[in-house]
Amino acid sequence: MTASPPAPASSRIVAITSGKGGVGKTFVAANLAAALARAGRRVLVLDADLGLANLDVVLNLFPKITLHDVFTGKSSLADAILPAPGGFSVLLAGSGMVEYSHMTPEVRDQLLRVVAEVEPQFDHVLLDTGAGISDVVLYTVSLAGEVLVVVTPEPTSLTDAYATIKVLATTQGRRHMRLLVNQTRKLGEGRAVRQQLQQVVDRYVNPGLDGPVRLDLLGEIPSDPAVRECVQRRQLMLEVLPGVPAARAMVAAAARLAASAPQ
Ligand SMILES: Nc1ncnc2c1ncn2[C@@H]1O[C@H](COP(=O)(O)OP(=O)(O)O)[C@@H](O)[C@H]1O
Ligand SMILES: [Mg+2]
To answer: What spacing in Å lies between the alpha carbon of 4 and ligand 1's midpoint?
Structure first.
């Protein structure tokens, strides 16, 4: 089978990416999904970290069926869509699967088919990507209408977020991306991070493009010991500690996302 062109990317499909690993993409995907579900939205999170998945770990799920089974024809897509705590649905992936460390025409076709099939069934489809800017990550992002870059205020995370934004602007023609600044230490740090990244993009990326790249702030999530505790206990923060500052910030970010993708 040859790779088909990507379907028209719908704004209901949001790719969550970052460049750097360990900044909170999976934590954000799970809790943003739970916040959207609480607001009455039908939400699916697809673990697009196909070879090193861990959405199942964060949600304390032990899947018998994963995307690998769907891709290889062992299972139907419908059977692989599982309910998660938090009232949303998930498509989980496997771990330690080296065959997904690079993109093949087969995986391209299968991922495209799966995303195209789930898109009409949900109000929001969140694609939780792996770290880096591999062809698997970039192809996954190309299927989304919206890009959410998770970034922390650390210089290494900022550098990787900038590199990711630059690559997406130049190779995919992205002119609008959203930022979720995670692990902030003081209020307003999210705005400062957005401004800093926008300035670098204005200076080094925009001059070579046909139109400027605009970065929007979806929200800022404070660094919160409750997050680590929840991950440790494999519990969803939005469910067990909905009142902590990080959970409230997630609900606010979800409301902004929902407002820009009406039902
Ligand atoms: N807002 C936060 N406050 C405190 N710790 C956090 C926060 N966000 C993420 N973390 C920590 O970072 C770890 C990595 O997050 P994860 O979502 O797995 O990152 P990624 O998917 O980007 O690799 C989490 O297990 C958690 O311990
Ligand atoms: Mg992750």
So the answer is: 35
Q: Is 231 in the pocket of ligand 1 (CB under 6 A)?
A: yes
Q: How far apart are CA 17 and CA 34, in angstroms?
A: 18
Calpha distance 249→123 (Å, rounded): 21
Each domain of the chain, given as residue ranges in start order, spans 13-260
CA of 127 to the centre of ligand 2 (A): 11
Cα 97 to ligand 2 centroid, rounded to whole Å: 15
Q: How buried is residue 123: exposed, middle or buried, by Cβ count under 10 Å (0-12/13-18/19+)?
A: middle
| Superfamily classification of domain 13-260 | P-loop containing nucleotide triphosphate hydrolases (3.40.50.300)
Pair of tokens at residue 163: 């590199």
**Cβ(234) – ligand 1 distance below 6 Å:** no
Task: With beta carbons less than 8 A apart as the criterion, state whether 129 and 45 touch.
Answer: no
Cβ(61)–Cβ(106) below 8 Å: no
| Stretch 205-223: mean pLDDT | 97
pLDDT in tens, 119-173: 999 999 999 999 999 999 999 999 999 999 999 999 999 999 999 999 999 999 9
- pLDDT computed for residue 9 by the predictor: 75
Q: Which atom of ligand 1 is nearest to the CA of 228?
A: 27
Residue whose Cα lies nearest atom 23 of ligand 1: it is 22
